[in-house]
Amino acid sequence: MTMQKNQSNPVTIYDVAKEAGVSDATVSRVFNNKAGVKEATRTRVLNAAQKLGYVVNLQARSLAGGKLNVMGVLIPGLGNGYIVEIIRGIDQELARVDYELMIYTTHRKGNNEASYLQYVANGLTEGILLVVPLLSSEFLRALENINYPYTLIDAVDTSGRSFSVSATNWDGAYKATEYLIKLGHRRIGFITGIMELSSAKDRYDGYITALKDYHIPIDLSLIVKGDFQQDSGYMAGQKLLALPYPPTAIFASNDVMALGAMDAIRAANLRIPQDISVVGFDDIPQAVTTYPKLTTIHQPLEEMGRIGVKLLLEQIEHPENAPKNITLATHLVIRDSCQPPPPKHDAYP
Amino acid sequence: MTMQKNQSNPVTIYDVAKEAGVSDATVSRVFNNKAGVKEATRTRVLNAAQKLGYVVNLQARSLAGGKLNVMGVLIPGLGNGYIVEIIRGIDQELARVDYELMIYTTHRKGNNEASYLQYVANGLTEGILLVVPLLSSEFLRALENINYPYTLIDAVDTSGRSFSVSATNWDGAYKATEYLIKLGHRRIGFITGIMELSSAKDRYDGYITALKDYHIPIDLSLIVKGDFQQDSGYMAGQKLLALPYPPTAIFASNDVMALGAMDAIRAANLRIPQDISVVGFDDIPQAVTTYPKLTTIHQPLEEMGRIGVKLLLEQIEHPENAPKNITLATHLVIRDSCQPPPPKHDAYP
DNA sequence: TATTTCTATGTAAGGGCTTACATTTTAAGG
DNA sequence: CCTTAAAATGTAAGCCCTTACATAGAAATA
Asked: What residues form DSSP beta bridges with A123?
């Protein structure tokens, strides 16, 4: 029934026009839902198209100035649940507005993200969502020159030239720390993220500020570096546990590291949360599949994806609009990985 | 420096040609690495392009008969880790051959996968990878008519008309069951997948056959229906535990359900694996972040993705090649969720 | 140097579509 | 029924490339 010859669909608008006895322009009008086509003609065209198995060639349409309805998303990789959550949100919103999604992973081109950006503006998409946590200055510069609609997801360009969505990292970290303090913890270990990222920095600051606000002295030995990967969480956990006065709670800058820390804790034969509490950040799906279920700061990842799409759409439709940043709230999700510290630890040396 | 005007890159091949003082055809030749361009001319063109910030418009290239280097992948959604793993493999291989990836999620169009298939062949991709576990007959029919390169991942078209990659589901299930039997288990609960899927069916058959081979009577009350989702695993687990003679081990048709079952077991205040063992199927990343770490059947998900890409490429390059199915081996990964059954359970009523 | 043979480059025709503008048809008004 | 305006349809140019074919220039042969 579909009369295709070879790869892709060789049935063109002309074939349909001939079949329906109209001009190609009319067929185009029908498929673009333009006004001014008689109802009878419209159905005749539709029938002809149906019969021949016509499918619009999006390339040609786009070349000729029509809409493509494809957005791109640039991500470092499918590495962790965090990014997948964002993409899920993007996908949801894209479905609503009937766009397709093109995925570009930067790891392909090594660290050459900046030049990849240029490449990405090659005509296959109408705009691009950037989920690249680490905004190098080179990348930022490339962004300036690109003159192509884009929005940053979970990153902000302090120059104010970019559309972006992000979350209240500082606030979330503050709340997490405060929660532990209110449970009675005084020695709270902290595993940092990659401190070049503003999100990591903000979380660190939130932790510090909460400590200060509650007059808890800051002990640098309780702060250990991580890189957002599970392994670093494990190693940081080990380091923390090896301390002369180990913490009674650990706050990791993201869930994946929290998972690593939990492994380290169990490897040391300690119980969670009886012996030591842990809280994460992100609330990735895995946070509920661990045991005990992880108490963490929820980031509205899906929503960030959805809003990213909306912002990009806004730019495509109103290029004149001024850039804006939307900041989404984070909140504490209490599950099973925290409780007050065991009494013996209460004494602070 | 890049002299772009508006959305997308308005610098064309003509601009570059003018700048370099050559014809547009020559510029095209340079960018397509065609032979017969003097070295001096080539560098002149490259410099001009560099200066103007020229980026090829892939749409136009493709329309004009050039290569696009984009593959599509049709998936039900980003739902579970299983699909993400496959995509990761696809992405890896695509990077090697320098293709881009377009993602189509079917949930967008409701259950109308078959017609979506038609749409997907719209010129934006050169071929499509199908990760649609549930091959409806309607879908299969659509496949016949599509005349567009595609390959099935983790599904086989028994008609032999399609290229496909899959894994040894039967074999994996057999091995999992056998492992439990050898540990001493006699009452082994089984949580099925969606039995319309051949993979679910094969796993079921593997379980049954292993039991028979070891002369263990089949108890239908130990077999409970699941749908590959976590919730169904939880409920199935509850059901199994509520039995007068509950199983000493549970084998779930996939990891996600195994996770659900583990929750149910803990909710019943039983320990894993001391009181009850559990094994899953798939080996998704989460299998190692649960506690205890899940013993499971490893499916080479990433490799399936990679091979899917290779098969698709083969079709694109050699349309005359006959369809083939590649079956990958699964294997048991022993972690911490199994041990011999507690003695008290040894007595079989 | 004249002739032949390559090699390097240019010319022009699409590829499938959209859209401004031209033309025809239809409906409305007189 | 004729005129006029509005609605429907057609014509043709152009989007940015690739590529067969034509042409000019360089190298090789006689």
From this structure: none
Residue A229, classified by CB atoms within 10 Å of its CB into exposed (0-12), middle (13-18) or buried (19+), is middle
Cβ–Cβ below 8 Å for A84 and B84:
yes
Tell me if A336 sits within 8 A of A174, measured CB to CB. Answer: no
Distance CA A29, CA B284 (A): 48
Nearest to B129 by CA among B103, B95, B156, B109: B103
- Which of A4, A145, A319 comes nearest B147 by C-beta? A4
Is residue B162 classed exposed, middle or buried when 0-12, 13-18 and 19+ CB atoms within 10 A define those classes?
buried
Q: Could you tell me the distance in Å between the CA of residue B64 and the C1' of nucleotide C14?
A: 8
Q: Are B222 and B187 in contact (CB under 8 A)?
A: yes
Measured CA angle at B21 (ends B19, B27), to 5 deg:
80
Spatial neighbors of B129 by CB under 8 A, at least 6 apart, are B71, B72, B73, B74, B90, B150, B151, B153, B305, B308, B309, B312
Q: What is the DSSP letter of B74?
A: E
Contact A191, A181 (CB under 8 A): no
Half-sphere exposure of A230 (CA within 13 A, CB side): 14
pLDDT digit string (tens) for A156-212?
888 888 999 999 999 999 999 999 999 999 999 999 999 988 899 999 999 999 999
Residue B29 CA: distances (Å) to CA of A316, B37, B70: 33, 7, 21
Distance, in angstroms, between B348 CA and closest chain A CA? 31
Residues in chain B: 349
Give the C-alpha separation, B72 to A154, whole Å.
27
Q: Beta-strand (E) ranges in A63-111? A: 70-75, 100-105
Looking at CA atoms only, how far is residue B87 from chain A in angstroms?
Answer: 8
Both structure tokens of B90: 């696809």
Nucleotide in closest CA–C1' contact with A38: D8
The Cα–Cα gap between B119 and A178 comes to 52
| Number of Cβ within a 10 Å radius of residue B252 | 33
d(CA A25, CA A160): 44
Contact criterion met (CB < 8 Å) for B291 and A291: yes
| Percent of the residues in chain A that have a pLDDT greater than 70, as a whole number | 93
DSSP structural state of residue A65: T
3-class state of residue A153 by DSSP: strand
| C-alpha to C-alpha distances, B291 to A88, A267, A294, B265, B340, nearest whole angstrom | 26, 12, 12, 13, 18
Nucleotide nearest A45, CA–C1', reads D9
* Inter-chain CB proximity B122 and A56 less than 8 Å: yes
Give the tens place of pLDDT for each residue, A87-102: 999 999 999 998 999 9
